[in-house]
Design goal:
325 residues, D-Maltodextrin-Binding Protein, domain 2, 2 domains, 6-stranded mixed β-sheet, 5-stranded mixed β-sheet
């Protein structure tokens, strides 16, 4: 008869295969966020299907593993999560190649911006110590103001404007505005209290942050680019997978799920603009003449930016990849 202590010791050495196949996915939004249905859940379902049940995904929403959006990448590096939803634009110094999608003129909506960023994906992946599973973008931002409508280039002069990330800063400064960085959780109050004169944000954020309640005007065509989003797997976790499991991950990573995520953001952006209109905000299209003036400012600033380094490439190198046919 086997001694009970020996039996317990033997059991402790046997790997629990079911637990090993379960991958944790961390994200800071709540489980009802549109991206759950738009990407997280379909990704988990597809991964389980193509791996024949070898890999499953357990979600940890609402910042259960870390509530700070800029710190999600660290969850992969320190082994807290197997996979995480990342906002590279929030930490664009870490990901200068990915940050190029934030330049104006690359794309016009979340669908085309997602297409653009994925054209450069093989190059962008080199700056992550992780396996990129999904990569997409939102729509370029609009400008929401409360007290002062922006109808001309001159209207921007002297205004304090919250920017999505520093990529937009040189263009707004050239237009005479003062760009500031604010956490997205503070933008509603900052606009309502006059701390900032305007907020630049993807239209998808209008409803999410109730900017239709704080603002009075929405101006389109202000120079700004898209923000990037990614779901990534820890490089250490990916390396430990079996060949068949790695193949399943590759199928998900090369699937149409990223494009679907971009399409989801496009729908949310449309809903955001509709909500602004329904709430009585005036939508302002600055018109061809003012748009040409603004483009002249962009054209004057852009060459210097394109020559700047982005990792082992230049910003211009990456932008060329994103706009290629």
């Amino acid at each position: 008869m086997k001694h009970p202590l020996l039996a317990m010791a033997f059991a402790a050495l046997v790997p629990v295969t079911a637990a090993a196949s379960e991958l944790s996915l961390a994200y800071f939004m709540g489980p009802k966020h549109p991206m759950n249905a738009g990407y997280f859940t379909p990704m988990g379902e597809m991964l389980e299907e193509v791996s024949n049940g070898e890999l499953t995904v357990r979600q940890f929403p609402g910042g259960a593993l870390n509530q700070s959006p800029p710190k999600q990448y660290s969850l992969l590096l320190d082994g807290t999560a197997d996979m995480a939803f990342l906002l590279p634009s929030f930490t664009n110094k870490l990901f200068p190649k990915t940050a190029v999608i934030g330049l104006p003129g690359i794309c016009v909506d979340a669908i085309s911006c997602t297409t653009a960023i994925n054209k450069a994906r093989s190059e962008l992946e080199t700056e992550y110590n992780a396996k990129i599973i999904g990569l997409w973008a939102n729509s370029p931002p609009v400008l929401i103001t409360r007290d002062k409508p922006v109808r001309t280039v001159d209207d921007l002069k002297g205004m304090t404007i919250r920017v999505v990330d520093p990529t937009s800063t040189p263009f707004l400064e050239a237009l005479g505005a003062s760009p500031v960085a604010l956490p997205v959780s503070e933008i509603n109050q900052a606009l309502a209290n006059g701390v900032v004169d305007g907020v630049m944000i993807d239209p998808a954020g209008i409803g999410s942050f109730k900017l239709h309640e704080a603002g009075s005007y929405v101006t389109t065509d202000i120079p700004g680019g898209a923000s990037s989003f990614a779901v990534a797997m820890s490089a250490a976790v990916f390396d430990r997978l079996s060949d068949s499991e790695k193949a399943a991950v590759e199928k998900v990573a090369t699937s149409e799920l990223s494009a679907q995520a971009g399409a989801t953001y496009a729908k949310i952006s449309d809903k955001g603009m509709a909500l602004a209109e329904e709430s009585g905000l005036e939508t302002i299209d600055i018109g061809d003449e003012e748009r040409a003036k603004m483009q002249a400012v962009i054209d004057a600033v852009l060459p210097e930016l394109l020559a700047q380094p982005a990792g082992d490439k230049t910003v211009g190198d990456i932008m060329t990849l994103m706009v290629q046919d």
